[in-house]
Amino acid sequence: MEPTLAVEDLRVALPMPGGGGPVEVVRGVSFSVPEGGFHALVGESGCGKSVTAAALTRLPPADGPGARISGRALLRGRDLLAMSPRELRAARGAGGVAYVFQDPMTALDPVLSVGTQMREAVPHGTPRAERERAVRELLAEVGLPDPERLLRAYPCELSGGMAQRVCIAMAMAQRPSLLVADEPTTALDVLMQRKALDLLRGLCRARGAAVLLVTHNLALVSEYASTLSVLYAGRVVEDGPVADVLARPAHPYAAALLRAVPRLEGTSVEDLAVIPGRVPPPRDWSRGGCVFAPRCDRARPECSSSDPALRGVAPGHAVACLAR
């Protein structure tokens, strides 16, 4: 079965503060989202997850001044990156790609009512009566009561959970083939995180949409995603089925992320495992060798001069590492 989305050798270069020309912040990323599936992009902040997601439909910063994009992003066989501006605008609409962003309070316009923003999300040209019915049905689908009051409300009158449900409803209004959820639970408490993802999963299954989940939360990945790609310094360092990668992580970075997940048996902050150091700045990513080596507890001398490509370790499971 053809995947809903197939990303091949995606590269994004962005201008850096201080000048000196664009620097690659997404470096040859490839992955696929299966038909009707849930694929996760995982990694620390600053590893290129959100830029990768934005680049799929040339959203800023991936399409800002001085940015360069190459590679392919095939949505059901059509290359989004080869589309004209007009074609790409259509691909961001009905049947194409929709986004749910991490902070609903900034994703919603504070000076427009919920109703105004919901109606704008319904496909252009929908008759007025059908549009009004669609808006109310969407609010009901995401579990928001009293649609008449809600449509008159402004974002500041909503709780974080309500605002995120409105954003999900707006994204689903276009009946997308692919829903990109970029850290959709960051602004929510633990209970609302699960409610939001349960809602996403249910809606996407009902409508046949695939999901690309961008997150650093491995607990959510283990419950909701079927496949994942681990990103570090703009590259995929491990890719495969969630069950395999989380049970037997082959890359030291993936293993370190798992060790850092809080455990119920811990008694204090001191019990949390940490990854020493931090993600280096993008200017240092292409200087040769494995970028993770300075933080890696398995690093070998050859890691400082060789940056290996992904290679298979099991069916559907690949890793880019010399020290495994």
Would you give an account of this structure?
The protein is of the alpha/beta class. The chain folds into two domains: 31-65 and 84-96 and 178-319, P-loop containing nucleotide triphosphate hydrolases (Rossmann fold); 106-173, no CATH class. It is 30% helix and 23% strand. The protein has eleven helices and twelve strands. 40% of the residues are buried. The mean pLDDT is 90.
Low-confidence stretches: none
What percent of the residues sit in helical stretches (DSSP H or I)?
Answer: 25-40%
The H-level CATH homologous superfamily of the largest domain, spelled out, is P-loop containing nucleotide triphosphate hydrolases
Number of strands: 12
Oligomer: single chain
Biggest sheet details:
8 strands, mixed
Strand content: 15-25%
- The CATH C-level class name of the largest domain: Alpha Beta
Tally of individual helices: 11
**Shape estimate:** globular
Write the CATH fold name of the largest domain.
Rossmann fold
From the alpha carbons, calculate the radius of gyration and give it in angstroms. Answer: 20 Å
Distance between the termini: 32 Å
Order of secondary-structure elements: EEEHEEHEHHHHHEHEHEEHHEE
Biggest sheet: strand arrangement: 6-7-8-3-9-10-12-11
Instruction: Determine the structural class based on helices, strands and strand pairing.
Output: alpha/beta
